[in-house]
Amino acid sequence: HKSKLDFFCKLGYGKQDICKVLENLGQEALEDDVLKELIRMGSKPQAVESQAQPSSLKLVARGSCSTTLGPKWFREDESDSSNYLRPIVIDGSNVAMSHGNKEVFSCGGIQLAVDWFQERGHTHIKVFVPLWRKEAPRQDSPIADQHILEELEKQSVLVYTPSRKVKGRRVVCYNDRYVVKVAYEMDGVIVSNDHYRDLQNENPEWKWFIEQRLLMYSFVSNRFMPPDDPLGRHGPTLRTFLSKKPALPEPKWQPCPYGKKCTYGNKCKFNHPERPHQAQLSVADELRGNTTVSLSLVKE
């Protein structure tokens, strides 16, 4: 048993399967019979199983870049997404009034925005709303779904900016200043349709930050929708805009405009699908190669 056990262990089979087969067939069983029984049981050598597993490496065309070998923040399916996604600071008043068509302070709009960013993997989200919005709604300032504010406050997502009453007059701190200042200190993204022109003139550093980190949005059929190109057609994509580090560009293979008439060979920067297995040599290199071959034949 020991000699046969060692023999089949070297082949990569498990000890439990080998012992089970030897007990069934007996000590005088031939090695071929033991091997057949192992195969019938479905036992596979470890080396075979490792070869059967699909390889994670993929062939990449020459000149292109592969994102599979990049750092963690290149991939959106990483579990710890907070490492590469920017913090989000939402102007709650702007979002709520936009969702309520500038007539009602709709708290449901804030919830839609928070859900959208949470689904993308953002873990650091802050919403700023004036404290007086906790009061009972009045006719001149209606509020819809006010209970959402309380729920977001319990989740440590919503923050109330201070306000108080002095001799019957409400004193409110500037809510926009909180939004811009916190987003600037956290190096995050401001979610608002406000341009904050007064704050841009107040601080030149805030001016650059607001121009580069302001994410505008729209509500389409009760759906929160930021643009795919937050900084314009020629700017970064939304994924890059919300990331701390830019993502690698996807490899784009543009076909060669000359097609089969191209004479650049392997020096051509474009794709040639018509010659995937050919050595892409230029015309000059092919002539040199043919000349060398002919001279060698003459010498022989």
From TrEMBL:
Keywords: Endonuclease, Hydrolase, Magnesium, Metal-binding, Nuclease, Zinc, Zinc-finger. This is Putative ribonuclease ZC3H12D. InterPro entries: Rege-1_UBA-like (IPR040546), RNase_Zc3h12_NYN (IPR021869), ZC3H12/N4BP1_RNase_Reg (IPR051101), Znf_CCCH (IPR000571). The lineage of its organism: Eukaryota, Metazoa, Chordata, Craniata, Vertebrata. Residues 250-275 form the C3H1-type domain. Its cofactor is Mg(2+). PANTHER family: N4BP1-RELATED (PTHR12876), RIBONUCLEASE ZC3H12D-RELATED (PTHR12876:SF11). The keyword Nuclease applies. Belongs to the ZC3H12 family. One of its GO terms (molecular function) is zinc ion binding. A zinc finger (C3H1-type) spans 250-275. One of its GO terms (cellular component) is nucleus.
